[in-house]
Amino acid sequence: MASKPPDILLQGIDALRRVSRHMFRYRASIIAFFAVLLLIYGLYLRPPSDFPAGKTLSIPRGATLAEAARLLEEGHVVRSAHAIKIATYLFGGGTNIDAGDYRFPSPINALRIAYAITVGNFGRSFIRVTVPEGATVREIGALFALGTFTAFDYDAFLAAAKAREGFLFPDTYLFASAVTSDEVITTMQKNFLQKIGQLEPLIQSSGHSLADIVIMASLLEKEARSNETRRTIAGILWRRLEIDMPLQVDAVFGYIRGADTYSPSLEDLKIKSPYNTYLYPGLPPGPIGNPGLAAIEAAATPIASPYLYYLTDTHGIMHYSLTYEEHLKNKRKYLP
């Protein structure tokens, strides 16, 4: 007759059975938990198949979380507006979201989208652009139309910026790759207003309007490089205006012809354009470029002199004369 197992052995086996049953239930719970997570991810958090990678989605200023979530769902950035709202709350965003233009280079899930709109991670790369002093609206537009700025419209920029010629401040800027034409104009105009503030006392004491100062500065930007020479030429040009003498500035013909640099011919001097300072007295109707701060300061602080004429020789040296006869002599002497 077989002997009965010791009680302690039976207790041990029973304990193992209970542990095994608990482990099975624990493993089943873990599997069920992850299955639910996968289901939630697949249904609500996974990026949509038609995710707008590389495109810009705008959340307007003042938009609520509910409105932003709806825009994200309608734009196929997320699968569920409800899910993005819950995820945003998890990241502590609550109803506070950062408005702006968001760009996501590749599809990302709703959790990462929620984090982005909570902290303002717009997903945009920034590009450094240097606008040279004296650049025209046409030249500025060409800088942005090289293909780097995906949302920039050259024609729209020209149409909107033409009336702002002279008031788009030349400077070095950092623009998002998805910057629009209107955003470029607004940024450059704001910069102009900020920079011009430091010259307001000089402009007010000059006796000329800001508009006239900017027009004169745009001429000086093309006519000379050093500040002292610009101030001397400014004195000559303001004096010509006082005595009703035509300005006769050659730099306007590059603007009329749409060329960066241009030496006018005798035929050009007859062009019927309001910018032709040989045919029409007074200042041109607008600036011929966007001058920098030094040229604007020179226009507001001219140096008085007895001269009425000037020319630059082939070495870049300026020569002044009192009369037209002296000016013709200088042309024969210093120009080929």
UniProtKB/TrEMBL annotation:
InterPro entries on file: MLTG-like
UniProt keyword Lyase, yes or no: yes
Keywords: Cell membrane, Cell wall biogenesis/degradation, Lyase, Membrane, Transmembrane, Transmembrane helix
Site (Important for catalytic activity): residue numbering on this chain: 223
Record-annotated membrane-spanning stretches: 26-45
Top-level taxon of origin: Bacteria
Gene Ontology process terms (BP): cell wall organization; peptidoglycan biosynthetic process
Membrane topology: Single-pass membrane protein
EC top class, as a word: lyase
Catalyzed reactions: a peptidoglycan chain = a peptidoglycan chain with N-acetyl-1,6-anhydromuramyl-[peptide] at the reducing end + a peptidoglycan chain with N-acetylglucosamine at the non-reducing end
Listed GO MF terms: lytic endotransglycosylase activity
UniProt cross-references to Pfam families, sorted A to Z: YceG
EC number, as in UniProt: 4.2.2.29
A GO term from the CC aspect: plasma membrane
Keyword Transmembrane helix: yes
Compartments where found: Cell membrane
Family: Belongs to the transglycosylase MltG family.
HAMAP family linked to this entry: MltG
Function, in words: Functions as a peptidoglycan terminase that cleaves nascent peptidoglycan strands endolytically to terminate their elongation.
Record's protein name: Endolytic murein transglycosylase
Species: Candidatus Kaiserbacteria bacterium RIFCSPHIGHO2_01_FULL_49_13
Source species taxonomy: Bacteria, Candidatus Kaiseribacteriota
